[in-house]
Amino acid sequence: MRLDDRLGRPLHDLRVSVTDRCNFRCVYCMPKEVFGHDFRFLERNELLTFEETARLVRLFLAAGVEKVRLTGGEPLVRRDLERLVELIAPMPGLRDLTLTTNGSLLAQKARPLADAGLRRVTVSLDSLDDDVFRRMNDVDFPVGRVLDGIAAAEAAGLAPIKINMVVRRGMNEESVLPMARFFAQRGHILRFIEYMDVGHSNGWRLDDVVPAERIVAMIDAEMPLEPVPANYPGEVADRWRYRDGDGEVGVIASVTQPFCRDCTRARLSAEGELYTCLFAVSGHDLRAPLRDGEGDEALAARIAAIWGARTDRYSEQRSAETAALPKVEMSRIGG
To answer: Domain extents for the chain?
Structure first.
């Protein structure tokens, strides 16, 4: 089954947030000035249960989704997450089940997740410089423990491992080349992400964006690159490989090179809200009809109607006015 939106974009990827909580306070996502000790996170009864999440994932797979990514917040702070992986992993139609994490708990969790059926992980890591990394995560977490988590994931077979680095001017752009050098030697796929105006609390300014073109030029000057075709239509990263054949990098340029026309991603929040864009102002409640006893056929029709009405093109239409809108926070729906 293929389900298209109003611009002809098929539903292909589903990102599932399992919690709005995180043990980091990264300055571009959950600044502690906003997400402090008195911030109200979702209560446990507000979260979808693993069984509710699995039921919805099954309906999305029937609607054409092939890739499912578990996100947060930080998904590994959700207790017993491997139970959800066990529920989703054997579902018909699923071609890829992966997880995005800050890596802080990955050393302990990699093996149980792999045993439960998880196939890959993406680790967010914004610098190898310990001082820079601690400033960015803003909870004084050492980079060495994230590297331990990456090693554990590799040992557990959760590969290929992708490393995501958000690049923010004046904060960590000097870490671009050291990151490229380090991961080119280890066979992991490094992806650089332009600092985006996700949510409404990170103080985003266009001046803080380091353009993807600049990032590629920085690397290419020392480690020559050549472009690589996309793996599939709608892939978010532009891919480059080192001309010496040793690894590849990607750049995600939502700000300077929008890819809305190829976007095939839906996002399900931890409390059961369906979002059709990373930059959405509001979502569509699936938890209430699910808990009110709505059957699979009606829920599937509801999902189809939401996606079928989709016209989102935020990054292509970005302006000072849209950037100032009170959009949903990335910590609620993942990246």
So the answer is: 13-333
pTM higher than 0.85: yes
Residue 73: is the preceding peptide bond cis (ω within 30°)? yes
**SS3 call for 270:** coil
Four-CA torsion 149, 71, 198, 281, nearest 10 degrees: -170
pLDDT single digits (tens) 92-104 = 999 999 999 999 9
Helical pair 143-155 and 106-116, crossing angle rounded to 10 deg: 20
Please check whether residue 256 is in contact with residue 194, taking contact to mean a CB–CB distance below 8 angstroms: yes
Mean pLDDT within 42-50: 96
Helix, strand or coil for residue 206? helix
Nearest-10 Cα torsion for 193, 25, 101, 186: 60
Contacts of 205 (CB under 8 A, 6+ apart): none
* Residue whose token pair is 């870490």: 175
The CA-atom distances, in angstroms, between 292 and each of 204, 220, 245, 287 are 39, 55, 55, 8
Give the mean pLDDT of 228-243. Answer: 83
Q: How many CB atoms sit inside 10 A of residue 33's CB?
A: 11
CATH 1.10.150.20 fits 13-333, yes or no: no
Compute the distance between CA of residue 99 and CA of residue 67 in angstroms, rounded to an integer: 11
Residues in the chain: 335
